[in-house]
Amino acid sequence: MHLLARLPRCLSVILLLVGLGLPGAWLAAEPAPASPEAAQQQWLAEHRQLQVGVVLQAPYAQFERRRREQQLSGAHVELMEALAASLGVSLNWHSYPDPAALEAALQRGEIELAPGLQQTPGGLRLWRYSDPYLRIPHLIVGERSGAAAVRLDRLSLREPVAVRDGSGVQRFLRSSHANLELRAASSERQALRQVLAGEASYAVLDEAQYGRLALEAEFAGLQVLGDVGYPLLLRIAVRRDLAELAGLVDQALRNLPAAQLEALQQRWLRAAVPGLGESAGFWRSLALLLTLLLLALLGAAWWLREQHSELERRLLAAREDLQRREASEQKLRLTQFSIDHSTVGILWVNWDSHVHYANRAAEQLLGYAAGALVERPLRDVEPQLDMDRWLGLWKRARAAGEAALGFETRCRRADGSWLPTDVSISFLRFGDTEYLVVYLTDVTERRRARAALEESEARLKGIAGNVPGLLFRLERAAPGAEVQLSFIGEGSAGLVGYPAATLLEPGRGIRSLVHPDERDGYWRKQQAALDGDSDWHWQGRLLTRDGTPIWVDIKATARRLEAGRVVWDGMVWDISEIKQTELALAESRAQLRELAAHLESVREEEKAHIAREVHDELGQMLTVLKLELSMCQLAHGELDADLRERLQHMSKLLAQLFQVVRDVATALRPPILDAGIASAIEWQARRFEQRTQIPCLVEVPEQLPPLGDARATGLFRVLQEALTNIMRHAQAHSVEVKLSREADELQLSISDDGVGFDPQRTRTGSFGLVGMRERVAMFGGSLRLDSTPGQGTTLYVRVPLDAQAEETA
C-alpha cells in the first residue's frame, strides 16, 4: 500500500517544483556559475577519494558489527556508496554525534560533502545543496482503535499531540495549527511512550523513525493514522567552495535509477505498518478488493492533502514574510526614535553641503524650528565652511571610510549667537547616494571646565613656586604598578639648583640628590611607605647642583583614590640652620655631661681623699689623745676626785668624737664599697632599716662581674638617693631592692609600697630624680621610673658591663 502511495507523491513533488519555477540544481543564496564538463572530469581525476561526513542516527547511518569489525550502514551510507561507484571514487567516512559537530568539522576543512541534510538559510552560507533525493513524510501515530484517518486541523485541545522538542515539525505545527496542544518529548521514542501512557492522544514523527521503532514489541499496539503534510526533504550537501564536486554529485543523483532510490527507501526508511487483519480463503479476496478501494480513496485524499499542505506552506511563508517586515518596521521606528531623541545633534549633508536631514537635538542646539535646517547650506551654521573647504572635508572623510574626522569650532545659532561645538564627521553610503554625517556636541561646559582647570593649575603652580620649599607628588596608577614622580614644584631651582623639568626626567627625581652616606636609609624609609601605602617622613642631607650638602625634612601624605590609585603629596623643607643649631646644642649637652661627669668624679675622689684623711690622720691623733688621757687617769686619777671626774668626762667626749669621725668618713665614702657593690647594697639596706624601722628585702646574686669603682659608687649613690626619697615622701611599709644581670647589663630595681605619685607632675626645683638620671647617663646607662598614685613606686637603673662603658680614672 505504501509503495503505491510513495510513487505519486514523488511525482507530485517534482511536478510542483517545475510548476513553481524552482531551480532544479543547487539552491543557494548566490548561484554558482556552471562549470564545464571537462573541468569537472579534471577535478574528479585529481580527487579520487572524497571525505564524507555523516551524523550517526539510525536508520540513516549507524555502526554494525560485521565479521568482528564495526562498519557503517544505513540509508545514507548505501546511497553514497552507489554515487561513489557511479563516479569511480572511494569514500573516506567521518562520523559525528550531531549536526553541530558536523558543521564544526566542515569549518575545519575535514570533510567535503555530507548526505541527509535539510536546506536552511543558515546552511546556504556553508553548503551547496543538491535536489532532494528522499522525501520522508511525517506520520500521525496512535493506538489501534479502528478509528478513521486523523486530521490535525480537526483536533481539539483535549487531544494533545506529542512531538520531539526542537524539531522542524514542531515549529511547523506551532505556526500552522494553533488549535493543537503540543507536548514536547526528548525523542521520537519518548513521544510514542507518551501515547502509550495516555499523556498524549497522538504522536508525530517521520516515517523512517517510525519504521525503526515499529519493529519493537513495546510499540506493537500503535498504528499510522494520518500524514501532517510536512515532509523531510533530504539532500546531499557539498562544501561551498567545491563547485565542480557539486555539479558531479548533482549529475550522479539524476543518473541514479528511480527503482534504486525506491528500493533504498523501502529497505531502510519504510514504516513497517501492519496491514488489516487477513484470513484464509474468502476473507483474503474480500480484503484485496477493499484494499484496492482504500488505495483509490487514499490517493484522492493524499492529493487533496498535498494541495492543502502546499497552501499551508504558502500561508506560513507569507506569515513569516509579514513578521519580518513588521520586525524591520519596528527596528526602523526604534532607530528613528533614538536618533530624534539623541542628545547629540546629527546632520545628513549632501555633497553640495546642503542639509538633507537634521534630528531634533541638532535643531534645538542651533535654535531652529522643526524642519527649518533641511536644504540649508552648512555655511549658515559655520560661516567659514565655504564650498572649497567642504569638498576638502568630503574627500578626507570618504578616504577615511568608517574613521571619523573631528575638530572644535563655533556654530552660529538662528538668533545670531555663537555656540562652542565639537564636530565629528563620518562618511555614509546609503544605496546609490553618499552623505556626510555630521555629529554636533555642545562643549560650552567643557570649555568652562577646561578654563577653570587651567586657572586652577596656574594658581597651584604659582603657590608651589612661592612656597619656601619643594612640592612634589608620587603616583601609582594601580596595585603592583611602578611609582612615578608626576609633579615637582618650581621651588626646586631655589632649593637644590635644578629646575623641575630636569628632576622629572627618567632616572632623576629626589633620590638622585640624596647624599651617598644616607641613600640606604632614604630608600629604606621610602620603600616601606610605598609598600604599605602609608605616610612618609625622612630627615637627611641632599646635594645641591654645586655639590653643597644641605639638611632637609621630607614629609609626604598618602591618599588612596579610586581603582587602587595611590598618590603621595609631599614637601621638602630646608632645615640646615635648624639642624646646625640642633647639632650645636647636642654637642653642648655632651660637653656639659662630660663636665658634670668630671666634676662628679672629682667630687667622689675628693670625698674619698677627705674620708681617708679624716679616718687616718684624725683617727691617729684621737687615738694618741685617748692613750694620753688613759695614762693621766692611771697616774693622777686616784690623787684628786675632782680631776678623776673631769678625766672621765673628757674620755666620754673623746669616745663621741671617735664616733663622729667614723660617721663623717662613712658619709664621705663608705668603706664597705671596697668589698663590692653587693655588700654595699646590703649594708645600706640594713642602715635604712635601723633608721626608719621599715623592712627592706635585698636580693643580690652570689657572683657578679667586675665593676669599676666609679660605676659602683654611682649605683650606690643612686640607691642612697632613692632610699632617702622613700624615707621622706613614700610613707612605705616595705621596700624591695634587687640587683641582677641581664645580658650585658646590670640592673638595679628599688620598689616600695608607698603612696606613689604622678611622674609627669614633678615639683619645680626638685633635682633628685634629675641628678640620678644624669649620674646613670654618665656611665652610658638608663633610668626608668614607674609610679601610680596609691600604688607605690619602682625605680629601674640599667648600667652596661662592656669595657667601652667603663669609666677610666
Automatic annotation (TrEMBL):
GO terms for cellular component: membrane. Residues 456-533 form the PAS domain. Residues 609-803 form the Histidine kinase domain. Residues 405-455, 536-587 form the PAC domain. Keywords: Coiled coil, Kinase, Transferase, Two-component regulatory system. Pfam families: HATPase_c, HisKA_3, PAS_3, PAS_4, SBP_bac_3. InterPro entries: HATPase_C_sf, HATPase_dom, His_kinase_dom, PAC, PAS, PAS-assoc_C, PAS-like_dom_sf, PAS_4. The keyword DNA repair does not apply. Residues 578-605 form a coiled coil. GO terms for molecular function: phosphorelay sensor kinase activity; protein dimerization activity. This is PAS domain S-box-containing protein.
